[in-house]
Design goal:
The structure is a homodimer.
Chain A lengths: L2 E9 L3 H19 L2 E6 L3 H8 L5 H9 L2 E6 L14 H12 L4 E7 L12 H4 L4 E7 L11 E3 L6 E9 H16 L4 E6 L5 H14 L6 E6 H10 L6 E4 L1 H15 L6 E5 L5 E5 L16 H15 L2 H16 L19 H11 L1
Parallel strand pairs in A: 1-2, 1-3, 3-12, 5-10, 8-9, 8-10
Antiparallel strand pairs in A: 4-5, 4-11, 6-7, 11-12
Helix pairs in contact in A: 1-10, 1-12, 6-7, 8-9, 10-11, 11-12
The structure holds 3-isopropylmalic acid (2 copies).
Chain lengths: 361, 361
């Protein structure tokens, strides 16, 4: 029987309660698919700051190193926002994990589920046009990590600077990830850049073109980041895979997430070249609704499905979870934020949604 | 009688035909407000490449230097897209003009006009929530112009880099522009940054806070660029003035423009510290519809109004044009793209819209 080990980092806010539902689903997967998914919980984020003195304690990092994948909840909240930037949960834990494990390939799917179109902030005809985008974001380079970064000078001429930087190798590996994904989807990659202004973007475009030659069945086109934010609003159905640098992918993936109107449904994967990955919901820790049992666990559960698919190659189990989620949505077992205001009283709780998904499995 | 001189750079695509309507309106302003607006036309963009061999001929630059303001049409088109980047209309003419005249302050208003809500790609309730945003974008620094920029190294480790850079002085002057604008509007500035990742953004935030102290009547808050692209979709009415760096302003202003669904109505102003400015429509040269007399001249006409207001202090004339535009929209004299598909046969031509605005004046 195949056996895998998972580091479970539930984190802050709604993290723990949605993670509990993901664990239920993984328990069900163990039985149904005859695998062992050993899970060990580790502290991370604000909770780890409070209990261990830092956002990413060394035992947590060690636990992650020993696991086959990290299932991540969410971190951060007002309580830790006044800490110096470098100690804050997002930076100290999330950016450090990305860079420590070289998790360069970030996949952020965003789709509008049939029946949930009215949640989208977009006009009905656009929301109903069949929106299903996968943002492939480079996650360990670009202006997030480029050196030098700093401050110099005096008085009014004092200046701050950051370096946007990409090597051919870094661009090539994320471009390959995008083309591979497109082959399994609708065969189209749209590369997002600002090649009319940035030298980095010109190299980006060059390498995207080179990689495209190895994928004759995938169509490649290019779009400027400013135009991309417009087209996502006007006609999101035109996009299949969007290939983005770190900063542009941050922007594009969040706009795509919002466009669906249902952040609580969106998972994400961050992987390295060895298939090790960190899997987390696209939304945040939502401290305002934490602890009430009303948070949507689906993004966490779909993140677990991505983990089974990408880090464990358990495609059947991943497919089964994804189908069970769709069936749950179709059955109308929905948390409050997915319901119109006048139907909120019929909302399912976090654990009811988890139970229904297990049942549908 | 006051007298002003204007360098008129109509450019490519729909530029010349919409400029003709702006000229009609300025003729009417001369009579009604007893001013002289001397206009001299100069070649720019693709047209200048074809006729003079470069996108910004020296006589054009000289003409601009001698004028009180530049009224700009639009430039570029497929014909010139294969030129080396540095020679292309956008870079060779537009970025050069911005930097030559130190046009650091870019104002891009975006509003959804009552009655035109159905053009917006946003859901009806959002489009009707009273959307009226002014994006204040820094236009002569940041990653567009920061040095060094280049390529180095060999093989797969060859890398490209760009520098994002802002001095205190550069941030302060654009922040002041945003606060001044907010005082004349609804008293709120939202500063857009990525301070959780970029050192430049941290300095940006610091200076925005400093400047805010001099404007106790204006409220300041901060938003990350990724969240900004989400909020513009979800609840654009929350924004009054959005203060942005060059790159973030490029992205935010285009998303705001698209959100209105009527790019043909949106003007822009790019000014320096002396009040000299370049005024141009937010949309592009639209080569696909050029020469057919169907382009909307309103963005060009409102750009002329901004010119009268900011470079000539002719506020009454500017107000009068803006009112005449609203009256024209209300009278239903609309170009085709503002009409539902089944009413396009009743569309007004470019010159009919210009005539109506003159009449309303
Ligand atoms: C928390 C922040 C540093 C992070 C990022 O910008 O990458 C977040 O916005 C994300 O997209 O995961
Ligand atoms: C043409 C291009 C360089 C320009 C920019 O990015 O500034 C354009 O997108 C704009 O916003 O005026």
């Amino acid at each position: 029987m195949s056996q895998y080990s998972i580091a479970v980092l539930a984190g802050d806010g709604i993290g723990p309660e949605v993670m509990q539902e993901a664990n239920k689903v993984l328990d069900a997967v163990e039985k149904k698919f005859n695998v062992t998914l050993n899970r060990t919980a580790y502290p991370v984020g604000g909770y780890a700051i409070d209990t261990e003195g830092e956002a990413l304690p060394s035992k947590t990092l060690l636990g992650c190193e020993q696991a086959d994948a990290i299932l991540f909840g969410s971190i951060g909240g007002p309580k830790w926002d006044t800490l110096p930037l470098e100690q804050r949960p997002e930076r100290a834990a999330l950016l450090t994990l990305r860079s420590h494990f070289d998790l360069f390939s970030n996949l952020r799917p965003a789709r509008i589920y049939p029946g949930l179109e009215s949640l989208s902030p977009l006009r009905e005809d656009i929301a109903k046009s069949g929106v299903d985008v996968l943002v492939v974001r480079e996650l360990t380079s670009g202006i997030y990590f480029g050196q030098p970064k700093g401050r110099e000078g005096e008085g009014e001429e004092e200046f701050a600077y950051d370096t946007m930087r990409y090597s051919k190798r870094e661009i090539r590996r994320i471009a390959i990830a995008a083309f591979e994904a497109a082959q399994k989807r609708r065969g189209k990659v749209t590369s997002v850049d600002k090649a009319n202004v940035l030298v980095t973007s010109r190299l980006w475009r060059e390498i995207a073109e080179e990689v495209a030659k190895d994928y004759p069945d995938v169509e490649l086109d290019h779009i400027y980041i400013d135009n991309a934010t417009m087209q996502i609003m006007k006609n999101p159905a035109q996009f299949d895979v969007m290939l983005c640098s770190n900063l542009f992918g941050d922007i594009v993936s969040d706009e795509c997430a919002m466009m669906t109107g249902s952040m609580g449904l969106l998972p994400s994967a961050s992987m390295n070249e060895e298939g090790f990955g960190l899997y987390e919901p696209a939304g945040g820790s939502a401290p305002d609704i934490a602890g009430q049992g009303i948070a949507n666990p689906i993004a966490q559960i779909l993140s677990a499905a991505m983990m089974l698919r990408f880090s464990m190659n358990l495609n059947d189990a991943a497919d089964a979870i994804e189908k069970a989620v769709v069936a749950t949505l179709e059955a109308g077992v929905l948390t409050g934020e997915l319901l119109p205001a006048d139907k909120r009283s019929q909302a399912a709780s976090t654990s009811q949604v988890g139970d229904e998904i297990v049942k549908q499995l």
